[in-house]
Request: fold
Amino acid sequence: MAAAGTGHENWSSRTAFILAAVGSAVGLGNMWRFPAEAGENGGGAFVLFYIFCVLLIGLPVLLSEVLIGRHGQANAPESVRRVARDSKASEGWSILASMGVFAAFLILSFYCVVGGWVVYYIGVFVSDLFQTGLSGGAFEGRAASDIEGLLPGLFGNGGLMVGLNLGFLAVTMFFVARGIASGIEWVAVYLMPLFFVLFLGITIYGAFTGNFSDAVAYLFTFDFSKLTGEVMLAAVGQAFFSLSLGVAGMMTYGAYANRDTNLAETSGIIAGADTAVAMLAGLAIFPIVFAAGLSASVGPGLMFQSLPIAFQAMPFGSLIGLAFFVMVFFAALTSSVSLLEAPTAYVFEKFSFSRPVATLIVGLGAAVLGVLSSLSFNEIAEFRPLGFIPTFAEANFFDALDGVTAKLFMPIGAILTCIFVGWIADAKLIDDENGLDGVLHQTWRVLVRFVCPVALTVILLVGLFG
Ligand code: PFF
Reply:
C-alpha cells in the first residue's frame, strides 16, 4: 500500500522493516565471508576488533543511513537531496548516495555469482542424498580431493557458472519487480524465520557432533599480538559489508519506514542480529571443520570446500549439507534483493518507468557484469580490468569489482554520509529522526562527527596505499 504523501509503498509493520533490514544485513557476508576472514586473520583478535568496529563505526553509520532515507521518503539520492534542501545545504551532497547506488549495482553483479555457487552446492547435496541415503556421512567412498575439486570443477565450466549466476539474479529480479509488500517483504517475512530455524538447528548439531570447545577457544581467545594493521582493516571492511553500509541499501530501506518507528532502537536490533549471526556462523562452521581435522585458515574455500569434506564424516552428512546450503541460499537472496532494490528504486522514481521495467533494466546491466565475473575464474582469468591501479594490478574481473567496492566505494560513501549527517545537515532535523536522547545522543554525535570519519579515512588510505 502506498503510504500517505510519499508516492511509494511502505513496510506494513515495524517487524517487517526489521526482518527486511536484517535480511539485507545477514547474507553471504555472515555465512561465507565472516568465518573465512576470521580464520585467515587469526580468530579471536579479529573477532574482538570486529565487534568493536560494529559498535563504534558500523552502528552510528547505520543509523545515519536509515534516518536519511526515512526523512527523504524516496530513492537514496533523492532522500539526500531532500535532507540537504530542508537543511538549506547544497543538493550536490546527493552524489554520496548516487555513488552508493552505483556500488550496490556493482556488488549485486558479483554477489549473484556467489549465489550461483550456493545453488550448485544445493544440487550437489540433493544428488548426494539420493546416492548416499539419509543417515550416513556425505559423499560415501569419495576422496577428499574429489570433494575439494568440486569448486574448481565448477569454475572450469563457464556455461554452468553463467547459468547459475543468471538463475540467481533472475530469482532476485522476480521478487524486486513485485514491489515492497508482495516481493521484498514477502521474501523477508517467510525466508528469514526459516533461515533462523535451520541456522539454529545446524549450530546445535555442530555443537553436539563437532569440536565445539576448540571452536569457542579459537573464536574467543583474544591474542592481541595478532592484531596487526591488516587484521584491523579486514575487520572493519567485513563489518561494513556485513551491515550493508556505504552503498545506499539501508537508506533505501529506511525510506519505507513509518514515522513512528524508533530508528535508533531498530538500528540496534539490526546490528545486534547481524553480529550474533556472524558469531554463530563461526560456531556452526568451525566445530564441524575442526572435528574433521581441517584447518581454519583456508579463506574463501572454507564454506565451499572444507565444510563439504567435513560433512563426509558426520552423521546425516548429506542432509545437513543440504540444509546448510539451503539456509545460505535464503540468507543470500534476502541480501541480493536489497542490493537490487537500491538502484531499481532510483531508476524507477527518477525516470518514471514502471517498477518491473526498472528492475529489468538494472537486472540486465547486472547480468552483463555478472557474466564477465563468472568467466573471470577461467575463460578470461588473465583479464585485469584495473591493472593500471597498483592496488588492483593482479585482480581479475570478479576481484576487481569486490576490491573497488570494499576499498573505495564503501569507505568513501560512509565518510561522506558521516560528514553530511554530522556537520552539514540541520541538527534539529537529524535529532527529530534519530530517536536518541541523553548520553546516547551525545555519544552518537561524537562518533558520527569525529570518530567515524577519521577512522574511515585512515582505513581508506591504508586500504589503498598501505
Ligand atoms: N550485508 C550483506 C551480506 O553480509 O552478505 C551484503 C550486502 C547487502 C552488502 C546489501 C551491501 C548491501 F547494500
Summary: The mean pLDDT is 94.
